[in-house]
Design a protein that fits this description.
The protein is α/β, with parallel strands linked by helices and 462 residues long. Helix content is 21%, strand content 26%. 47% of the residues are buried.
Length: 462
């Protein structure tokens, strides 16, 4: 096998070779860009913030919304420092109170004494996102416990669409619209009308959770399953699906609060702040399994992220950067058991070049293959990152990682799906030859990235 490997890598042709055919549904450009963002910040802020409650009932006096030192830019600056690439804000939660000056209804910041009724919490956050390069997302709860029109669905739908229009035009560009399904049992919404409006006003925006573009992972713990397929068969009446059983690209988002069980700020919530170790575990169980991570951080009654939460976030961001800032695989010699058309366009070196538009691929009919990394001396690592080239679809069903230790290959990690990303955490490995073995795939493998890393000293050994 090694002789064949040598011939393949030593005599690559330059003739044009067709890329692999696309397998199954693939991401839209917007979905792919969103998946590459990897993780963002969720900010629940509203009238609940001032009552130590998660869900208020829509009867709290709007005069009680009174942040003392509001600084939405601080939210955005913190997210950017941590390495997050998007931020989603609760423009209106289930209580019906809007943190922006909507022209529809009376339960919003205009009825608050904050800034003499002329405040707009969303404006400051949106402007900072646009200036600092984060994607802005908005959460507009369909359920409304205050609005009397809610009991008249067709009339309420028109008001809801009018509010969507405000959000998508006043604060443009908006990259994600987040719809929570809580509390809506038995209520009929004009979902398709909502979606059509969003597509018209913000065609690049993705519609999440109760929507056709991004799906909820299924828990509020930030944890994805070990086997994670981006392609889903839609058998439930999800709005936007043409029919039951339709397969679509439907990537996952994991939402979780940094304070356990608390989405809004609570005065006694500091004791529930997750440890650095817990946040890292969540990261590896979300981003590390191919899902996006949406980490909620609740602004306090000042209108700022609490200092303890901010410090924990910055520690988390520093560890992630320290761990993944030096890809040892970038300096490896590469070879493979099979190279598509024996062409440089699909050579194994493409998987270590750090580029998003190149990849290693095999010939048609090859569903099992390996790629080897060879170093001049031993490398010490404990993290392995794999990524598929998603514009061609998700293909890999099973894989393993092997290291040449002593005089034989030793399996050091196994897994099922790869998808957008798979991060393997390992006890420390010392080797000069590493092999990524795709053991089963639906179609010829197309591997975009392979990375070897050494975890930050601040991470707990695995």
């Amino acid at each position: 096998m090694f002789m064949v490997m040598g011939l393949l890598t030593g005599a690559l042709l330059t003739a044009t070779v067709a890329p692999p055919e696309i397998y199954g549904p693939v991401p839209s450009p917007q979905q792919l860009a969103w998946q590459r963002m990897e993780y963002g910040m969720f900010c629940h802020f509203g009238i609940n913030t001032f009552f130590d409650e998660e869900w208020t009932d829509g009867t709290k006096d709007p005069k009680t919304f009174l942040p003392t030192e509001f600084n939405g830019r601080q939210w955005v600056e913190t997210a950017k420092k941590v390495g997050m690439q998007y931020l989603i804000v609760t423009a209106k939660h289930h209580d019906g109170f809007s943190i922006y000056p909507t022209e529809h209804g009376d339960y919003n910041v205009k009825a608050s004494p904050w800034r003499d009724g002329k405040g707009d919490a969303l404006r400051e956050v949106a402007d900072a996102c646009h200036e600092l390069g984060l994607m802005l997302g908005v959460y507009l709860s369909p359920w409304d416990r205050h609005d009397p029109l809610y009991d008249d669905p067709p009339v309420y739908d028109e008001r809801f669409k009018a509010m969507l229009t405000e959000l998508l035009t006043w604060y443009a560009p908006v990259g994600e619209v987040w719809f929570d399904g809580a509390g809506s049992k038995g209520h009929v919404y004009d979902w398709n009308g909502y979606y059509s409006l969003i597509r018209e006003l913000a065609p690049d925006a993705l519609i999440a959770i109760c929507g056709p573009d991004i799906r909820w992972i299924g828990n509020e713990d930030g944890l994805a399953p070990d086997t994670l397929w981006n392609v889903q068969e839609v058998t439930l009446p999800i709005p936007g699906a043409e029919s039951g059983g339709e397969k679509r690209w439907y990537p996952s988002e994991c939402d979780v609060p940094i304070r356990k069980g608390q989405w809004f700020y609570h005065t006694d919530g500091a004791a529930n702040l997750r440890s650095l170790e817990e946040l890292l575990e969540i990261y590896y169980r979300s981003v590390g399994l191919g899902a996006a991570l949406l980490l909620n951080v609740s602004p306090d009654r000042r209108g700022q992220l609490p200092q303890a939460d901010t410090q924990r976030l910055l520690e988390f961001g520093e560890v992630i950067r320290d761990t993944f800032n030096n890809n040892l695989a970038a300096r490896a010699l590469t070879s493979a058991s099979n190279i598509r058309g024996n062409s440089k366009a699909f050579a194994p070196a493409n998987a270590t070049d750090g580029l998003e538009d190149t990849y290693w691929a095999t010939n048609d009919g090859i569903h099992e293959a390996w790629l080897q990394l060879l170093f001049g001396e031993d490398r010490v690592f404990d993290r392995i990152v794999l990524q598929e080239h998603l514009p061609l679809g998700q293909r890999v069903k099973a894989h393993e990682i092997q290291a040449f230790v002593g005089n034989d290959w030793k399996t050091i990690a196994t897994g099922t799906t790869i998808g957008y990303k798979r991060i393997h955490r390992l006890p420390e490995v010392k080797a000069r030859r590493i092999r990524v073995h795709i053991t089963d795939a639906f179609a010829p493998p197309a591997i975009e990235q392979i990375g070897l890393y050494k975890a930050s000293p601040r991470e707990t050994p695995y």
